[in-house]
Amino acid sequence: MNTAENTDDETVPFPNGGGAGPAGRAGVRAVPPLHVSLITLGVVDLERAILFYEALGLTRRVRKAEGVAFFEAGAVVLSLYPRHELAADAGVVPGRAGQFGGIAIACNRSSRGEVDATLIRAVAAGGRALRPAQATFWGGYSGYVADPDGHAWEVAHNPGFPLGPDGRLSLPE
Amino acid sequence: MNTAENTDDETVPFPNGGGAGPAGRAGVRAVPPLHVSLITLGVVDLERAILFYEALGLTRRVRKAEGVAFFEAGAVVLSLYPRHELAADAGVVPGRAGQFGGIAIACNRSSRGEVDATLIRAVAAGGRALRPAQATFWGGYSGYVADPDGHAWEVAHNPGFPLGPDGRLSLPE
Question: Is A159 on the interface with B (CB under 8 A)?
Answer without folding.
Answer: no
